[in-house]
Amino acid sequence: MRVAVSGATGRLGRALIAALEEAAFSGPSGPIAWRRPDFDLDAPDGYSALLDRDRPELVIHAAAWTDVDGCARDPELAEARNGLATGRLADETAARGIDLIVVSTNEVFDGRRPAHGRGYWPGDPPNPINAYGASKREGERLAARAYDVTAGNLGIVRTAWLYGPPGNDFPAKILAAAERAAAAGEPLRLVSDEVGSPTYTVDLADSIVELVGSDGQLGGLHHIVNAGAASRADWAREVLRQAGIDVSTEDVPASTWPRASTPPAWAVLESTPLPGGEPLRPWQAALADYLPQLLRQAARADAAR
Description:
This protein is an alpha/beta fold. It is 41% helix and 15% strand.
């Protein structure tokens, strides 16, 4: 199967390319990595020629503008990149009978569910409260419209709180912040009133590949996250515990740091069943796999200074 991945140099895109390279159905040529400038969210007029050039049987659309504060400052650009560009890609793939997977987000939900309630299911009504969530929801809507009558299959995969290589993610930022707090002799302040589903890109990519390789289970709405839920503060303390870093912490509300965007306070997704029947492992176990390489990366950066 010829599989193309948009956003192939991004956090999830890299993990998808690696997972697809190990998949038997990818064939000897492996996946097609769409990078800029070939695939550009700001140039959707080029998608038709790109599809005709590479002739994929499936496109996994992982490219997105994920700067949520940038989206809040420029909602029209967010809609163009995450909404209209996704719709244009879906129009072109649907017209050719090409299957499509669109990667979306928990931020299509408002997060106003009471803390420690159940996570959001695919059947729950979307109600985004920020520009990023609204733009991703528009991408979902336009993709569904394109595939309303077509021979191709559309899968929408919602996920949450992604982290993983190449770093500069939440765990990496917590490690850096802990170092600064310790040097200043101050407690590390951690947000305690945002709760979500920390999800390792490697696990998400493997799950998407499992969907692709399944018999007829690609289509529809899927929620894929690592098991369990955590506040930002819980997640940060687990990073510190696993890294063996002893620093005092202080729980604070998200309002401590005003932002352009308003994130959902309850960002928890309930996972939908995967073809193999096994849920993703707990987020703590996934973090334990990732953290050693992040610590080695930090050590190399320190040595280079």
